[in-house]
Every structure is written in C-alpha cells, then in structure tokens.
Write a structure and sequence with these properties.
It contains 2 helices and no strands. The chain is mostly helical. It has a domain of 51 residues. Helix 1 crosses helix 2.
C-alpha cells in the first residue's frame, strides 16, 4: 500500500504548463457563464421555467466539454 507521503512518479516533464485543451476549457467556461448572464432574463420566456444554477452549470459543462473536444492534442 502506497504511503501518502510518497511522491508521484515523474513522467519526464521539466515544468508544468497548461495545455491547449485546458486553456480552451477555461475560456469556454468563462464565455458560457457570460453568455448565460445575457440569456438568463429571456430563459423563462423561452422555456416557461426559471434558469436555476443547475441548468446554468449543465449548459456550461456541456459547452465546455464540446469546445475542449474540438481542440487537438499536442503530440
């Protein structure tokens, strides 16, 4: 059984830097939250229900995943 104090195995990385997928995900999440702020007042007119935090989070997660999926991996 591994001890909590053991270090993780190194995989040859000299320094940690966010990948293109991480950067795209952060920008996509921020853009989706900004978009939902503009859509929020109209949401009830279109769907007959309030935009709850759960709905906003679901929309943000789905769009963020889709945008990250389109960003190619660096080889």
């Amino acid at each position: 059984m591994a001890s909590i104090t053991q270090s993780l195995p190194r995989q040859g990385y000299e320094s940690w830097a966010p990948t293109a997928k991480v950067s795209a995900g952060v920008l996509a999440g921020a853009a989706t939250i900004l978009l939902s702020a503009f859509l929020g007042p109209h949401w009830k007119d279109w769907t007959q229900q309030d935009m709850t935090p759960a709905i906003g989070a679901a929309i943000t997660n789905i769009l963020t995943f889709a945008i990250q999926y389109w960003v190619p991996d660096r080889k």
